[in-house]
Amino acid sequence: YVIPSQNITFDDIEKFYTDLSSLNYSKEAFVPRHTSFATNLTFANVPYIYKNGMWEPIEVQSYQRSAILVPLQGRHYNAKAFLLNLHAYFRRQLLTYAIFIIEQTYPMNKFNKGRLYNTAFNYIRQNKSLNITCYILHDVDLIPEHDSNYYSCETMNPKHTTSRVRQLIRGNYVKYYEFLIGGVLILTYNHYEELNGFSNLYWGWGGEDDDLALRFVQQKMCVIRPPFAVAIYTGTFESEKTLPHPKGQRNNQRFGLLLWSTIRLKTDGLHNIETLTRIVEVKRWTTFTHLKVNVDITNSK
Ligand code: NGS
């Protein structure tokens, strides 16, 4: 695990992953500041290539093609720490993958994570040449600590891989409630469609993931989890001054929305996402695709 220096750029990361021979460069750019973590990024002993929008191991065939969906608003430093660490992680697991940073650019005040996920899912499924079979929904501030926490889709059930999160400031692990599916959730195309994705109605922090968990119950879907020993993450943070894992602006309406969640499954979700949001920019890097999204087209010009 490495904590990048504060002034790292997306270009630095791009260069690091496309030019692995420049070891000196990497030493300069990535200064590890937390001694209890390994100080080097290590890769599997398999070279990788970037081909048709995906990263693929050479001479190894992955049986799934995965898209990693990472919602964002501001917090670019978190996105850089994420890219830097997670590319190495995915490569050690020999995944065939593409990362999508889904950034909300309008409105600026309230975050709507459900709409961002639905928008990205809809975009990726229309991009048929990528042929994505596995969707990994990932918080930007979570870095997996254990290489045996496999980022694979199970065809029967969605998988929740975040049971414990280590917070750097307090140093201890936070264990979550049994019902939680937020953090990192890995599911197939069919699962996402059956659930009609996320509700589009949650503005601000909290609840949209619990709403999805209620959809699981309604669709008789069960979540599976890797062993407790490996389902460990580190929560990263924007700067050392802020609290780890910031909760942002809480949504005061979330409990009211949860109460009526089940009657909305068919009408509120992936099916009507095109009437609510618009992708305003697609920027293709080799290390990720950056989608900028207006999540409220009815209230913008
Ligand atoms: C619950 C929230 C979830 C959230 C979880 C963990 O209380 O949306 O905490 O949050 N549910 C409601 O507010 C109804 S965390 O500490 O990881 O930021 O995912």
UniProtKB/TrEMBL annotation:
Domain called Galactosyltransferase C-terminal: residue spans: 176-234
Domain of life, source organism: Eukaryota
Main subcellular location of this protein, as a coarse class: membrane
Which stretch is the leader sequence? none
Select a single GO molecular function from the record's annotations and give it: galactosyltransferase activity
Q: In which pathway does it act?
A: Protein modification; protein glycosylation
Question: What subcellular compartments does it reside in?
Answer: Membrane
- One GO cellular component term noted in the UniProt record for this chain: Golgi apparatus
Q: What is its EC number?
A: 2.4.1.-
**Keyword entries, A-Z:** Glycoprotein, Glycosyltransferase, Membrane, Signal-anchor, Transferase, Transmembrane, Transmembrane helix
Q: Indicate whether Transferase appears among the record's keywords.
A: yes
Q: Which GO terms describe its biological process?
A: carbohydrate metabolic process
Per the record, membrane topology reads:
Single-pass type II membrane protein
What positions does the domain Galactosyltransferase N-terminal occupy?
Answer: 44-154
User: Which protein family is it in?
Assistant: Belongs to the glycosyltransferase 7 family.
Relate the protein's function as given in its record.
Catalyses the transfer of galactose onto proteins or lipids.
Protein name as it appears in the record:
Beta-1,4-galactosyltransferase
> Which organism was this protein described from?
Didymodactylos carnosus
The shown chain, on whole-protein numbering, covers: 109 to 409 of 432
